[in-house]
Structure formats: C-alpha cells, structure tokens
Amino acid sequence: MEWLSKSTKRLLAEMSAGILFYNVILIILAVLLLPRISYPVVPVVLGLIVGAVGAICMLIHMAVTTERVLDSKSESYANKYTVAQGMLRKLVLVAAFLICWK
C-alpha cells in the first residue's frame, strides 16, 4: 500500500510551498519592521518557522488520514478513524502549545 497517491503528493507539495512562501514574506516583514518599534525579531521568526513546520506536519497527517479512509471503503471505519485522528492532531497541537508557552 502506498501512503499517498500521486495527485495527493502534488497537492501537498503545492500547499506546503504556499505555506512556506507566506511565512517567508512574514519573516521578511518582521525583520524589516519590528526593529523600528523595538520589538524582538528572533522570537517572532522562530514562532513563524515552528508554525510553518507544524502546519505542514498537520497537512501531511490529514492527507494520510484521508487516503487511508478512502482506501478502506468502509463508512463506519472512516467516521471512527477520522474523528480519532482529528482528536489526536488537536491533542498534539495543544501539547506543543503548552510546551512552547513555558
């Protein structure tokens, strides 16, 4: 079993490129504008990088989950698995937020 179809891989690459492009623009703006208002640049840049990596990881997890439930062809399995994986993503997101907040 292949984890992702060719079209899903392409879509993931395009969406990941969009996330990276958007965050590069934000990092450039942060580097240019934040020193003018005496705001620390490094934490903002690190936050943008961590956020981009997290968004791409969640995107990949959602794609793998979707492909897996489509391959199963079982509605009850798809419902249970999708809900469970969505809750897992939220749990990891909250845990990462709490770890980074300290």
Characterization of the model:
The protein has 102 residues and is mainly α. It is built from three helices and no strands. The chain has helices at residues 6-33, 41-72, 75-101. Helix 1 packs antiparallel against helix 2 (41-72) and helix 2 (41-72) runs antiparallel to helix 3 (75-101). 0% of the residues are buried.
Spell out the blueprint of helices and strands.
Layout: H1 6-33, H2 41-72, H3 75-101
Any key phrases for this structure?
102 residues, mainly alpha, 85% helix, 0% strand, elongated
- Describe the oligomeric state of these chains in a short phrase: single chain
End-to-end separation in angstroms reads: 41 Å
Bulk shape: elongated
- How helical, in percent, are the residues? over 70%
What Rg, in angstroms, do the CA atoms define?
Answer: 17 Å
- pLDDT under 50 segments (min length 5)? none
Average pLDDT number: 91
Fraction in beta strands: under 5%
Order of helices and strands: HHH
Q: How many individual β-strands?
A: 0
Class from helix and strand fractions: mainly alpha
Number of helices: 3
Q: Please outline the major beta sheet.
A: none
